[in-house]
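Milestone 3.1: sequence recovery, worked example.
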């Protein structure tokens, strides 16, 4: 059964947050002054169990035709025994299963993730400059360990590896070209993300955004680029390839070139709320249905009703009128 929202957008992608916890305190996502030692994260009993997550994912696949599942957090690899969930999700036929991680635990976990059935991985890495990277993750974590994790994932067969870099002006924009130069020719796909006003705690300002056009111009001046066609409808990154054939990059321009009209994603938070937009102000609590003995048909009916009235297009209407909204934090529902 296919279902579309008020703008005719189908439901195709399910992003699953498995934890609201993270071992980093990145300044654009979980700033330390908000997510400090006294911050109250979700109690473990509030989290959906692996079996509950798998049931929901299978319903999305079987009833709505969802083929893309992405595990997020927080940092998903801090959730204990995550390999068990991956094995359950990998058993769903014809599903593209991937995971986004900060890479801090990949050296020890990459092989187990692949053995459990994970097929691809995305690693967040905001600079190769160790001083800049430590300042951005704000827990003094070294860039070398993340690079070792990327290598471990590659050796384990988690390919292609995508590298996500959030670009903030005056903080790490000097790292754009060095990152492109480093990953060019490796087979990995580097993606630059415009600094977004997700949540309400990261102090976002438009002046901090480095537009996609500027990112591409900087790289093209040294490493000539040409546009590439999208792989599918709803692909968030605009693709560019190196003219010498040494690979490709992507730019996610949610701020300056909004792609709301093709958005096919829904997000499941760690304790079972559904969010129809990354910039949502509230979610739909699915857990009472999942944990309360409701039938599969009742859960599907609730999801269908939610999606049919969906009218989210925050990035297309971003104005002074949207400033100050109490949006859900990215660390809570993943990117």
């Amino acid at each position: 059964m296919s279902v579309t929202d008020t703008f005719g957008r189908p439901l195709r992608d399910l992003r699953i947050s498995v934890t609201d916890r993270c071992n980093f305190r990145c300044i654009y996502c979980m700033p330390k002054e908000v997510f400090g030692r006294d911050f109250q994260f979700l109690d473990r009993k509030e989290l959906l169990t692996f079996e509950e997550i798998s049931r929901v994912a299978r319903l999305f696949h079987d009833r709505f035709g969802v083929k893309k599942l992405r595990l997020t957090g927080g940092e998903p690899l801090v959730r204990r025994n995550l390999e068990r969930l991956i094995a359950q999700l990998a058993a769903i036929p014809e599903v593209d299963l991937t995971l986004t991680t900060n890479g801090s635990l990949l050296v020890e976990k990459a092989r187990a993730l692949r053995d459990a059935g994970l097929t691809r991985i995305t690693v967040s890495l905001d600079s190769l400059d160790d001083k800049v990277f430590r300042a951005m993750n704000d827990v003094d974590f070294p860039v070398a360990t993340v690079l070792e994790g990327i290598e471990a994932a590659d050796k384990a067969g988690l390919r292609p590896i995508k590298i996500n870099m959030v670009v903030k002006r005056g903080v790490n924009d000097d790292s754009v070209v060095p990152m492109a130069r480093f990953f060019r020719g490796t087979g990995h796909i580097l993606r630059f993300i415009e600094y977004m006003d997700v949540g309400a705690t990261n102090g976002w300002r438009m002046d901090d955004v480095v537009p996609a056009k500027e990112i591409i111009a900087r790289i093209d001046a040294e490493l000539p680029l040409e546009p590439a066609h999208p792989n599918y409808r709803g692909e968030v990154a605009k693709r560019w390839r190196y003219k010498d054939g040494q690979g490709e990059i992507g730019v996610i321009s949610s701020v300056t070139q909004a792609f709301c009209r093709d958005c096919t994603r829904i997000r499941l938070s760690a304790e079972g709320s559904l969010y129809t937009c990354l910039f949502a102000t509230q979610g739909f609590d699915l857990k009472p249905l999942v944990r309360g003995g409701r039938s599969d048909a009742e859960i599907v009916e609730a999801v269908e009703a939610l999606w049919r009235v969906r009218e989210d297009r925050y990035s297309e209407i971003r104005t002074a009128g949207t400033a100050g909204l109490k949006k859900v934090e990215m660390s809570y529902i993943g990117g």
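The first strand starts at residue 13 and ends at 17. The chain has one domain: 13-333.
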